[in-house]
Each structure stands twice: as structure tokens, then as C-alpha cells.
């Protein structure tokens, strides 16, 4: 149990730069509180204590603003940011490292018994206000943009926006792009709300273009150095120092993560 709580707290520090201390996370993140209550209610549901499970779930909804049916299955390091207005249906299944923002609904489109709610595979991000409806599957690493309505399966690593949801980027396109830029974007939250190229943040877009330009310059200089060396020259004998994303972390964030590890050990 404590290992899972430790993972949950670490997931907050990794995905929310506003988190400062372990105590703050423990006391002020209703999304975590809802998940912790759900683990109890889910065990009660499976043990056929269904009324008690639903009652505790209702109390948790009053306290946190998050409604998770006791029958839903949640993976590890699941993170609900802000939390208010999130609804997760009975047959919903959520993989590991999934992130939901406020106002997200994982709902059904049928009154028939059986599987009627979505399945979210690992590393999925659902933007604020999005509605994912029906017994569909959202593939690994996929993103659903804010306020989108998704009623069809989404392939892995795809980005979906709009009403109804349409794919604006998919795995093949991302493979052709700049992986280093994608890592930086993920690190600093440019894709936190699953913003797509069709709906860009102008600041994030400008930074992305600068990163693309720098990457292209690095590639051209490297190719030029190789060509000069092949004809007998001796240039670029020293490699440029590698730039690690961790070097750009805010000191207070790194300190908070280290303190969290120390507090929980």
C-alpha cells in the first residue's frame, strides 16, 4: 500500500510543476484522495459489498469533486490533475501513467449491461473537459485535446481533437519529427493539455520552431565536419557537450523530489 502511495506522490511531482512538498501533495490534491478511496471501494466491490462501495464512492465525490465508480479498474501512477468534474464509469479501464485533467468524462453510450466504457492504455493524456464515450480503446501514448468528444478507437501515439474527435497527428508523423523536441515538450508541459498543431500555444510553437532550427543546424554542422575530415581535414575533433533535459529542471523541483524520496524512505 505504502509503495503505491509513494508512486502516486512521485507522479504528481513529475507531472505538476506547482507541487512543492510532500505534505502539500498529501493534503491538497483531491485527485489523489479520490484514487486512494477508490482502491478501497474497488476491493469492496469485488468482494460483493456493493452498497458500501457505492456509498463510500459517493462520499468521496462530495469531498473531492471526482466520481469514480467502484467497478472501474485503475492502473499504477494514475494522476487526476485538479480533479473537479471528472467522471469515470463502471466498466472503464485505465492503464499505467495515465493523466486526466478536470472535467473529463469516461462515459458510456448504452444502457446495456457489459463493457460500455472506454479503455485507456498506458501513458494516455486526456485534456480538460474532454469526453471519451463508449467501449472504445485509446492506444498507448495517445492524447485527447481539451473539450474533444471521442467515440471511436484512437491508435497509439495519436493526437485527437475536435467534436467529433479526429486524428491530427499519428505515430508515423511523429517518427519523422524531432524526438529531442518531443522530449523537451513533454518535460515542460507543452503537451500537458494535449494541444495539437491545429490549436497551438503561440509561445510553445515559437520555442518548438527554435528547437527545430537548432537541431537542423547541429545536423548540418555535423555533416559538414564529416565531409571535411573525409578529404583530409581535421575539424570538429571534440564533440559538443551533450545537453541533458535534467540540467534545465528548476532547482526547487529537483529538491522537492529528493525530499519526497527522503520522507517516504
Arithmetic mean of pLDDT = 79
Report the sheet with the most strands, covering strand number, pairing sense and barrel closure: 6 strands, mixed
If classified by CATH, what would the architecture be?
3 Solenoid
Q: What's the CATH C level? A: Mainly Beta
Structural class: alpha/beta
Number of strands: 14
Strand order within the widest beta sheet: 2-5-8-11-13-14
- Unreliable sequence segments: none
Q: H/E series, N to C?
A: HHHHEEEEEEEEEEEEEEHHHH
Structural summary, described in words:
With 265 residues, the chain is of the alpha/beta class. It has a single domain (2-209, 244-264), classed as Hexapeptide repeat proteins (UDP N-Acetylglucosamine Acyltransferase, domain 1), CATH 2.160.10. Helix content is 42%, strand content 12%. The protein is built from eight helices and 14 strands. It has helices at 2-15, 22-28, 30-46, 50-64, 171-176, 179-188, 202-230, 251-264; strands at residues 67-68, 79-80, 87-88, 93-94, 99-100, 105-107, 119-120, 125-126, 131-133, 137-138, 143-144, 149-150, 159-161, 166-169. Strands 2-5-8-11-13-14 form a six-stranded mixed beta sheet. It has a five-stranded parallel beta sheet with strand order 1-3-6-9-12. A three-stranded parallel beta sheet has the order 4-7-10, with no helix packed on it. Strand 13 (159-161) and strand 14 form a beta hairpin. Helix 3 runs antiparallel to helix 4. The longest helix is centred in the last third of the chain and has 29 residues, at 202-230. The radius of gyration is 22 Å and the shape is elongated. The relative contact order is 0.10. The mean pLDDT is 79.
